[in-house]
Amino acid sequence: MKPSRFLLALGLCLVVGGSSVRANEIFKFDQANSTIAFKVRHVVGNAKGKFTKFSGTIEIDRERLETSSVLAAIQAASIDTANEKRDEHLRTPDFFNVKQYPEITFKSRRVKQTGPNAGEVAGDLTMHGVTRPVTLKVELLGDPGSVAKNSTTRWRVTTAPLKRSSFGIGKGATGESLIGNDVAVEIEIQAVRAR
User: Fold this and answer.
1) CB distance 144 to 17 below 8 Å
2) For the domain that residue 173 is a member of, what is the CATH number?
3) In terms of residue numbers, what domain contains 79?
4) Mapping DSSP to helix (H, G, I), strand (E, B) and coil, where does residue 65 land?
């Protein structure tokens, strides 16, 4: 597979494709047109939410794809579950403790192409002061050739459910037993060429 069709990014990280991309190309997350969302079991149904403030940078080296990198930062206080009372509780030390841990970050360690429009980005996810390895699977939504024309691309990012207990989130909180431990991540990232 030719890395010239494959540019990577996140998240949490995504992949960006295009045949005319130069080495050390820089892409920035377009927050207004991207979504970082999650779903977790709560009582008898699912609670859904998203983060509304985040940023990310993707640096691509098409000559040495494995040296490409992804950095992302989410403002934990921007959590939005469409329930203000619940959101305020999630910001407290019972859960995200946003005053002590204001950011959720992802930093890539390895990039790998797995198909013409797909890849994996392995890296470190830091949340609530705890860092764990995570592998993100990325899939291009659209035509790889459109990146060269429009300088914009869109990707779906998936990963295995995150265990909130692995990050110490919700441990010991009142009603913790009513909340599932597995958190499904639902991400779509649009990125714009910056350089």
Assistant:
1) yes
2) 2.40.128.110
3) 3-193
4) helix
Question: Residue 61: what pLDDT?
Answer: 79
Structure tokens at 7: 């540019």
pLDDT tens digits for range 116-164 = 888 999 999 999 999 999 999 999 886 655 555 568 878 899 999 999 9
Measured torsion, CA atoms of residues 35, 194, 75, 142, in degrees rounded to the nearest 10: 10
**What is the C-alpha separation between 110 and 164, in angstroms, rounded?**
24
Question: Alpha-carbon distance 82 to 59, whole Å?
Answer: 34
pLDDT in tens, 41-62: 987 789 999 999 999 998 877 7
Structure tokens at 185: 């991540």
Angle 184-186-187 (CA atoms, 0-180°, nearest 5)? 145
Give this prediction's pTM: 0.84
- The length of the chain in residues reads 195
Q: Which of 119, 94, 123 is nearest to 110 (CA)?
A: 123
The Cα 30–Cα 37 span in angstroms is 15
- 163-190 burial code (b ≥16 CB/10 A, e <16): ebeebebbeebeeeeebbeebbbebbbb
Residue 18 CB coordination number (10 Å): 24
Q: How many domains does the chain have?
A: 1
* Selection from 109, 112, 136 nearest residue 124 by Cα: 109
